[in-house]
Amino acid sequence: MTVLSRVSPFAGLAAAALCLSGCNILIPDTGATDPARFVQETSPVFYNPPGVDPMRVKPIDTPVPQRPGVPPTIYNQTYGIPGANFSRTYGLPVTNPVNSAMYGQVRDTDFTLPAIPVSRIDPQYLRQEVDYPTKEKPGTIVVDTRTKHLYFVEPGGKAMRYGVGIGREGYAWSGRGVIQWKQKWPRWTPPDEMVARQPDVRAFSAENGGMNPGLGNPLGARALYIFKDGQDTLYRIHGTPDWQSVGKSTSSGCVRMLNQDVVDLYDRVPAKTEIVVM
């Protein structure tokens, strides 16, 4: 009886060990460390029907079916702007949230810049970093009047690109100059030539003190003054409350930018920055 009582615990342990060994719990699976096996077990599996060349299958270009009673705005849509490459499908936002953040309402000193409806602007005219190989040194401003883009040249073949509005034919300026100085919320003083062409702005002429800064001021939130050979060209890079003029040739010669963009450029550009308008 005493011998059996001493042997039975060891017998129970042996039986338990045999049972566990059958489940491979006590034996580690070292095969899981084999790279070839790992790739085989984790590689994706695709359905390839016999006789079908996946490279020759054309994508289905039909609208997503809409369920009755569901507003059509939650289904796949595009901006409706030529060249737009953003879309939304099944409730995703139609506007890029990054753009919405960049062009949202901003409190700037004594003024609050209203949000810009970016969904109504061609995406190519929204601020973005792009590849831009150029011989111009980093820190130079390049205005391409043909494409209506302003580039702030960065190192490594990059540039920050902004959309701009430019002067109507006959009123544009081109050449090389420098940003002689810059101003936050500038006072607008139309030159005598403009006053002669547009008598309605005479109230804001130099002799009358110009227009006070503000949301309705044609120079917007910032102005960068272009000089050449030490002389004021009378042309500016400036903000505008008229966001619809960006991407168009509508101004009296200056380079217009969205207010949020000109604030961004102002913070990047020191005085004496070189500028090329071509």
TrEMBL record:
State the family named in the UniProt similarity comment for this chain: Belongs to the YkuD family.
Q: Which UniProt keywords apply?
A: Cell shape, Cell wall biogenesis/degradation, Glycosyltransferase, Hydrolase, Peptidoglycan synthesis, Signal, Transferase
Molecular function as annotated in GO: glycosyltransferase activity; peptidoglycan L,D-transpeptidase activity
- Indicate the segments forming the L,D-TPase catalytic domain, all copies: 139-278
What name appears for this protein in its UniProt entry? L,D-TPase catalytic domain-containing protein
- The protein's annotated pathway: Cell wall biogenesis; peptidoglycan biosynthesis
Biological process, per Gene Ontology: cell wall organization; peptidoglycan-protein cross-linking; regulation of cell shape
Q: Which residues form the signal peptide?
A: 1-16
Q: Does the keyword Ribosomal protein apply?
A: no
Q: Which residues form the active site?
A: 238, 254
Q: Which Pfam family, giving just one, matches this sequence?
A: YkuD
Instruction: Choose one Gene Ontology CC annotation of this protein and give it.
Output: extracellular region
Concerning InterPro entries, the annotation shows: LD-transpeptidase (IPR050979), LD_TPept_cat_dom (IPR005490), Transpep_catalytic_dom (IPR038063)
